[in-house]
User: What shape does this take?
Amino acid sequence: APRPHWLFGDQLGPHFLDPRHGGPDADAPVVMVEARSVLARRRFHRAKAHLVLSAMRHRAAELGDRVTYVRAGTYADGLAKALGRGSAQELTVRHPTSRAALEFVRARPGVEVLPAGGFLVPHDDFARWAGGGRTLRLEDFYRWVRVRHELLMDGDEPAGGRWNLDHDNREPPPRGRDTLGAPEPWRPAEDDIDAEVRHDLDRWERDGQVSFVGRDGPRLFPATRREALSALRRFVTYRLGDFGRYEDAMLAADPVLSHSLLSAPLNLGLLHPAECVERAEAAYRAGEAPLNSVEGFVRQIAGWREYVWQLYWHFGEDYRHRNALRHRAPLPGWFLDLDADAVTANCLSTVLAQVRDTGWTHHIPRLMVLGSRALQDGWDPAAVTDWFHRCFVDGYDWVMLPNVVGMSQYADGGRMTTKPYTSGGAYIHRMSDLCGPCAYRPTDRTGERACPYTAGYWAFLHRHRDRLAANHRTARAVQGLDRLKDLGELLAERDRRDGDAPP
Ligand code: FAD
Assistant: This one.
């Protein structure tokens, strides 16, 4: 008889079970474990808990008699329940996406770990590419993936003659408009399984078994393969064309703009990255979407997403504890509770409300509003990572560590990025409509209306002056510090500030 196969909750697409793509034996019985301990350990966004449980239960319903779906306290209990306690039964599993889960499966006798399923680049290929002590740069990695997977290539040359069209993809939002007016993104309709999930979450919350943050409105992201394909189709057909141009812009009334909203179904394994980039390329070849948008989208998925996945394993377990800037401040209560209404700075309040209501924002609010606040105020990077992991529908250990420890908090001292990502209010003002109605002014460094991002930016440069002066990418910004006549006043004002007062 074929060995049973254990399916994790982020391995939900059909390709994970396909024997031709590294999956288990064709008719292997499937085990799924819904472990309460995962939810009880941390205070997740409720919409995220809802999405993951809904997706797992939908998958179980599809697999029907083939699956044993157990609800248990822990993974170990669940497996015992499904397979019989004490049985040293052999089991297969696809390579999990977190170190903790990988250790768990490796420690169990009789478990064979099959190759990971949700990515373009196998670990061994990356190891060969990264070997020989080369500097790991996204741009080099991305070009290598493009060539190897023949993505947007004309022979040996990149389609259109350029590898990187980022330059065309940094436009501020169109003036005087509060939305882009792009066709609506795909959104699901809930069903009985969602109702059951909501009922269970209510009950567990009432019993005090779990506690959540955020609002669990109607489900906003795909929970099945069919839904995920609808979302992908809608994006490629109607929204991809404008993806590039306003990729970095922010509008209060239009948080999604032309972003794909595909990170959640990708990270649940409902979509394979190859099908996403192939469909985008097909749209370009058919003349239905411009190159800057298609290249931008391919770069996000075949470049960034793959790169982050590989770096998670490459950097090792210690990476989680890196704190190169020695930031130790705890996260303030209003941030932990997603209390957007307590926040005065309009950009932060708006973005925090988006997280509270949907568990999602696009990359610039994550990096330049939320992450930048944490960096400027010196919050403990491990706690910031945990916060992102819990509060975002697409957050998983593998994707959080490089993005938050490295990209956003510079806690790795520059292994992942060449400089810290933070800015004063001027950047937010240029790229959004968030500063107009704000009580603060992006140009003000001191005084009543001093923008917390502008003041925070200079204070950050000052605090890490030596390190940043030695980095050629930030040296000029540090020279700017010396020309500030009001630096002393700015720092004194920040010291006087009530530590917990939300900006
Ligand atoms: P789009 O803008 O439409 O991009 C297309 C796809 O590219 C995304 O769906 C995603 O799969 C992929 N992608 C792009 N950038 C990245 C990246 N840096 N890492 C991984 N995938 C990427 N992404 C997550 O999937 N999960 C996270 O927990 C996560 N946390 C982040 C935290 C911070 C501080 C930052 C700066 C970025 C984070 N990202 C994360 C990356 C990015 O912000 C999201 O993938 C994106 O906003 C999701 O929305 P979308 O699907 O509309 O993306």
